[in-house]
Amino acid sequence: MSQKAVTDAVGQNASLGLYQLWHDVTASRAVGSSYSNNSNRPIMVAMCVRNVPLGLYASSIVVQGIEFSAGSNTAGEHRFISVIVPPGQTYSYKPLATSNYTLLELY
Predict the structure, then answer these.
(1) In the predicted model, is pLDDT for residue 97 greater than 80?
(2) How many CA within 13 A on the CB side of residue 89?
(3) For 52-70, what is each residue's pLDDT tens digit?
(4) Could you tell me the pLDDT band of residue 98, with boundaries at 50, 70 and 90?
């Protein structure tokens, strides 16, 4: 097998993170809406919520009906959640402090 054939095969069957970059999608996503991974590769979604308000709150990302969440009952903490979204699947998210979070996608 030639080097080009190997390179092409790796590129077509690349794993998570290979030939992918992080993108800040905070401004282009709406809380509670569903977003699809229309690629043929898994993507990673990460959310960081900063300066959590006082009280018991939970942030979450839902993939395939499964909720991944991080909570806090201490003011000023930061919370981080990351998930892998398989090809053809959707995700939605809910930050606990809707004005102070960042949503990233690795694709």
Answers:
(1) no
(2) 18
(3) 777 767 899 999 999 999 8
(4) low
> And the tokens for 45?
């979604």
Residue 75 token pair = 């003011």
Distance between CA 71 and CA 42 in Å, rounded? 26
Report CA Rg, the chain. Answer: 16
Nearest to 81 by CA among 51, 53, 58, 57: 58
CATH number for position 68: 2.60.120.40
DSSP code string of 56-106: -EEEEEEETTEEEEEEE-STT--EEEEEEE-TT-EEEEE-SSTTSEEEEEE
Residue at 20 is within a domain:
yes
